[in-house]
Amino acid sequence: MFRNLSFGLKTGEAMVVTGRNGAGKSSLLRMIAGLVLIASGRLSLEGGEPDIPIGEQAHYLGHQDAFKPTLTVGQNLQFWSGFLGDGRTVEGALQAVDLASLTDLPAAFLSAGQRRRLSIARLLAVPRPIWLLDEPTSSLDAPSQQRLAELMHVHLLDGGMIIAAAHGAIGLERARELKLGLA
Fold it and tell me: Which of 54, 63, 65, 132 could be joined to 119 by an S-S link, Cβ 3.0–4.6 Å?
């Protein structure tokens, strides 16, 4: 699928992966996340935890928003916090994405944009150095896109890394670009 593909990021850097539909943007992110096996080559994270795969040191925000519709907004985020992290409170993460007032609402009642914001809250509730974002602004209104841009900026300032697949601007103006082409 990929030939002669090589890139590197340092802490505090972002890269936006671009290309036509079907070029492999989502597949690349899934490979980094450990969701798809790579056929050849290698992935490495210098300075990361050497005994932990890269995928476990990253958050993957894909096209599907990962939540259980029968659980409340707060319960969903608490689940992810307990499963992936230390189970600490999730209030701050919900406030950061403007969902704190909906903590007790079943997630099934959320709009598409609110669902996306709940998925973004998971990035904040369980800190990981790498954010893998696949079309992260989809379903977000302009204020939510701006808030996501601010959250990404803070993550980079804190020494995090972001690799995002996108077709348009997502608020990472200083990011490097990796353009994929169809074979």
Answer: 65
